């Protein structure tokens, strides 16, 4: 039966699909996400009566599509927090905007997030968003906190997909929780552009600020 399946790699995962199937354009509905919780009948009814879904999708689109300081200042709540599972440090609105607009965008002017989200809200109040960072290092040197600056090389990168849980209240994003993925995030970006990333232990010993 091995001849009847083909293997397609997505990030670090391996998915088997029938060999005769034609792959459609990538669509990642929430039910395919590994962290998605199955909904009861009551939950499905609640989703069908969710009149805020369109608004949430617009907020998420604004967060990820062609990020800029103006957009992020507008879409992130003043009490915004961002963290990664397994790390205790939380990043503020100023931290997020500083890293994105003060470090990443000057070095990578075409930086963008490919993203997919159904707009549905899980029982914990978060939307599940699958993102993938892409761009070219054609701008300023990439100067990540605690790491040697990388001169512009023109290199293109496409990081692994990662799952981010996003909580939207009204027209603001109040929290993002990142599920760990070694192939994504600032450290993976630095490595993809040719940088040598120290281990977490070495970074701590050098008193370097941690990166998510």
Describe this structure in words.
With 212 residues, the protein is of the alpha+beta class. 26% of the residues lie in helices and 26% in strands. The protein has helices spanning 41-48, 53-64, 69-75, 93-107, 186-192, 200-205; strands spanning 5-10, 13-18, 76-84, 91-92, 112-116, 127-136, 156-158, 162-169, 172-178. The termini are far apart. The radius of gyration is 19 Å and the shape is globular. The chain has one domain: Nuclear Transport Factor 2, Chain: A (Roll), CATH 3.10.450.50.
Secondary structure elements and their pairing?
Elements: E1 5-10, E2 13-18, H1 41-48, H2 53-64, H3 69-75, E3 76-84, E4 91-92, H4 93-107, E5 112-116, E6 127-136, E7 156-158, E8 162-169, E9 172-178, H5 186-192, H6 200-205
Parallel strand pairs: 3-9
Antiparallel strand pairs: 1-2, 3-4, 5-6, 6-7, 6-8, 8-9
